[in-house]
Write a structure and sequence with these properties.
By secondary structure, the protein is an alpha/beta fold. It folds into 2 domains: 3-137 and 300-323, Rossmann fold (3-Layer(aba) Sandwich), CATH 3.40.50.720; 146-294, Dihydrodipicolinate Reductase, domain 2 (2-Layer Sandwich), CATH 3.30.360. The chain contains 10 helices and 13 strands. Helix 1 crosses helix 10 (297-312) and helix 4 runs parallel beside helix 5. The longest helix is centred in the C-terminal third of the chain and has 16 residues, at 297-312.
Length: 328
């Protein structure tokens, strides 16, 4: 093979902040060869110009067909939406073009939970085309699900899984702060939560994955979301006045025969104290792991997606991060 054609061909679809981070990570990975970039918002520009530094003079396309054809046998790195029904046409098009898919779509992390029929259809199609489809990231995809599963490998039967993720939204981009309701009144937050317009997507999927990875299966999942209010004026990408909403706290509880076996907590708020990722297993031996400061969201998600690309080419069907190797 010619020197310039080495590596697994990959296409990046979706070039928002996370998609751009994925593109940079792919360019820095010798085992991958970036052959296409797709985003109608940036069509006509070169990828190098968009990334703002030395980069390929690869034209960003509005439609994926040509890029997918150039990457047959490779992987689509997909960073477009959290909604599986919105992502589904992209996934099908890539699979039919002969590509595996690694996506940031949170609902794809464990799609059998809320889209069982669609999941079965995608699984059949991927099996037929001899490729794999999966979602990867930090949350869901690692901090609250794969990490507990990894810890459980050195413990006996797991009686209960507790995991928490605390993120100070003041250190992140404005879009995340807006996503968790920063700056809203409590009433406006409650109304937006009722409409599904605020909060983190994928927590229930993480609960299902954490249970499976620790050796059991949930039969019921309950999820709540509450506002975190500011005790004082807060500076950040979205300034928050005292008494207004600084962010959100979400809790998902997973049950087996009425007994709570999984509890996951995510707090994302401007000014959130003690940012961290934490996992605790009630098992023999009991285990507790804390990552002070927490796992950086965007950069770590980009690497989670890129590092899953090569293993994805060895898998078949609709799979989860639990099917990936423990290391690289």
């Amino acid at each position: 093979m010619a020197e310039g054609l080495r590596g697994i061909p990959v296409v990046v679809m979706g070039l928002g902040p996370v998609g751009q981070a994925i593109a940079r990570a792919a360019l820095a990975t010798p085992d991958l060869r970036l052959v296409g970039a797709v985003d109608p918002r940036h069509a006509g520009r070169t990828l190098g110009a968009l990334l703002g530094g030395p980069g390929p003079a690869l034209a960003i396309e509005a439609e994926p067909a040509r890029a997918l054809a150039a990457a047959r046998g490779g992987v689509l790195l997909h960073a477009v939406t959290s909604d599986l029904e919105e992502a589904e046409p992209h996934l099908r098009q890539a699979v039919r073009a002969g590509l595996s898919v690694v996506s940031t779509c949170e609902e794809l992390a464990y799609p059998w939970l809320s889209h069982e029929a669609l999941a079965e259809e995608l699984d059949r199609l991927a099996e037929q085309r001899d490729v794999a489809v999966l979602a990867a990231g930090v949350n869901p995809g690692f901090a609250l699900d794969r990490l507990p599963a990894f810890l459980s490998q050195v413990a006996g039967p797991v009686r209960h899984v507790r995991a928490a993720r605390v993120v100070d939204a003041a250190t992140r981009r404005e879009q995340l702060a807006r996503k968790v309701g920063a700056g809203l009144t409590v009433d406006a937050f409650d109304a937006a939560a009722e409409r599904g317009e605020v909060g983190h997507v994928g927590l229930s999927q993480s609960a299902a994955l954490a249970a499976l990875g620790c050796g059991f299966e949930l039969d019921e999942v309950e999820e709540t979301i509450d506002p975190v209010t500011a005790a004082r004026d807060l500076a950040g990408p979205v300034p928050v006045a005292r008494g207004r909403v600084a962010g959100a706290r979400q809790v998902v509880r997973g049950f087996v025969e009425g007994e709570e076996r999984v509890r996951l907590e995510v707090t994302i708020a401007v000014g959130a104290a003690d940012p961290r990722d934490e996992v605790e297993l009630d098992a023999s031996p009991p285990l507790r792991l804390v990552v002070p400061g927490g796992i950086p969201g965007e950069e770590a998600t980009a690497w989670a997606v890129v590092n899953a690309a090569a293993p994805a080419t060895l898998l078949r069907g609709l799979v989860t991060v639990l099917d990936l190797p423990a290391g690289r």
